[in-house]
């Protein structure tokens, strides 16, 4: 029998600690599965070859140049240095069962690094040493460099894990293991490569590309159209469970920053009169977006760090969240955005233009959502069924369906 009640952070932390020993006696209490993703070795090989080819197909003249190599790797090395030396906060990850419940420390300096990166970019732009729209002018070259670098880094990460004897949960298929990864937490000192790849490389580049779109619009039209948190990732499934392989390395070095930006590139290459949005809707998206789920996980462990820095808005942490208790100690939040739909973090990205991103994103989130739901069903059992009854919608809440004239049963 599951119960639903409002709990304080202290209550949640005490409950989790009380159930820790019991949870560790279960096999696969984290909901993991030995099933192959992406269709096994064949699907892995197809994915690793077809997606880079698709990236090149969508951009004419994407030849790697010396300038492209210099831009990408100067940025990469600079961000790695900032990771280690910029001011930040320390936190700990989830307990690793294969290492006897050991938790790893994480140094989180992304906020200071982000603002430092923006400052450097602004200085280079306004001094004309490196105008931001150079990222658009050299997009094809930089994308190719990122693609080749993603393959190279993936190979290095895979081989060093084997040579150092640091492999974890290998499937026996070299092709599949190369895609999914061989080592769980590769590090040099305080530099955690998985967190670095997940946060710094993709999202910083993507943000700078968006800034370059704004710079190009201002240069052409004289104005910028309105269309234009690291520590939160520690509790994610990728950080806790997935090894660092081609999937995370290539995807974050090349896939995310150079395919998710096609919406922004559309804005750079079309007149604003073709895509005028409602400014009030854009303002609502900017104000109401938040990180409630991740704040809840940190709060549950008594590790929530409140920081007065964008994008960590003050209202992202809900006090005394409404939860559904589970037998694993990791409760399910049924509050805030997650009391309305189960995947609020995916819904805002389903923009209908340009069509590549829309189609790709739909396919990607359907696969990822099915994976997450299956894992949560295995992990939480009856509690998850209760959660699905409480929050029946995945992406679109019932109020939106009513507004669109779609009646539900």
Account of the 3D structure:
- This protein is mainly alpha-helical and 409 residues long.
- The protein folds into two domains: 1-27 and 316-409, no CATH class; 59-289, no CATH class.
- 55% of the residues lie in helices and 5% in strands.
- The protein has helices at 9-24, 40-57, 66-85, 110-126, 134-137, 139-163, 174-180, 193-221, 237-241, 246-259, 262-269, 279-288, 292-300, 355-380, 382-390, 398-403; strands at 4-6, 89-92, 105-108, 187-188, 191-192, 322-324, 332-333.
- The strands form three sheets. It has a three-stranded antiparallel beta sheet with strand order 1-6-7.
- Helix 2 packs parallel to helix 10 and helix 3 crosses helix 6 (139-163).
- The longest helix is centred in the middle third of the chain and has 29 residues, at 193-221.
């Amino acid at each position: 029998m599951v119960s639903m009640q409002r709990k304080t952070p202290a209550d949640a932390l005490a409950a989790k600690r009380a159930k820790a020993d019991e949870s560790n006696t279960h096999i696969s209490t984290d909901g993991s599965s030995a099933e192959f993703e992406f269709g096994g070795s064949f699907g892995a090989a197809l994915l690793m070859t077809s997606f880079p080819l698709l990236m090149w197909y969508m951009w004419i003249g994407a030849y790697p140049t010396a300038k492209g190599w210099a831009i990408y790797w100067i940025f990469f090395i600079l961000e790695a240095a900032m990771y280690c030396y910029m001011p930040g906060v320390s936190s700990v990850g989830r307990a690793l069962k294969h290492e006897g419940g050991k938790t790893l420390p994480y140094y989180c300096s992304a906020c200071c690094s982000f603002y430092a990166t923006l400052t450097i970019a602004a200085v280079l732009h306004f001094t004309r040493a490196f105008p931001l729209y150079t990222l658009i002018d050299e997009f094809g070259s930089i994308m190719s460099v990122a693609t080749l670098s993603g393959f190279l880094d993936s190979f290095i990460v895979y081989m060093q894990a084997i040579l150092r004897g640091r492999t974890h949960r290998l499937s026996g298929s070299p092709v599949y293991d190369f895609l999914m990864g061989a080592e769980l937490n590769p590090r040099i000192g305080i530099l955690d490569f998985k967190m670095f790849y997940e946060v710094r490389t993709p999202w910083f580049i993507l943000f700078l590309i968006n800034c370059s779109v704004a710079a190009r619009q201002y240069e052409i039209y004289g104005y910028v159209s309105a269309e234009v948190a690291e520590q939160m990732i520690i509790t994610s499934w990728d950080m806790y469970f997935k090894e660092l392989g081609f999937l995370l390395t290539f995807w974050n070095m090349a896939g995310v920053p150079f395919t998710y930006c096609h919406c922004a590139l559309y804005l750079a290459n079309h007149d604003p009169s073709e895509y005028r949005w409602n400014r009030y809707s854009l303002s609502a998206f900017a104000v109401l977006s938040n990180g409630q789920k991740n704040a809840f996980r940190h709060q549950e462990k008594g590790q929530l760090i409140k920081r007065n820095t964008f994008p960590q808005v003050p209202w992202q942490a809900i006090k005394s969240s409404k939860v559904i208790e589970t037998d694993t100690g990791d409760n399910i939040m049924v509050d805030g955005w997650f009391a309305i739909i189960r995947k609020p973090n995916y819904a805002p990205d389903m923009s209908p233009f340009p069509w590549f991103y829309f189609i790709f994103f739909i396919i990607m989130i359907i696969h990822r959502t099915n994976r997450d739901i299956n894992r949560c069903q295995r992990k939480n059992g009856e509690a998850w069924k209760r959660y699905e009854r409480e929050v029946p919608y995945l992406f679109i809440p019932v109020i939106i369906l009513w507004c669109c004239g779609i009646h539900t049963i």
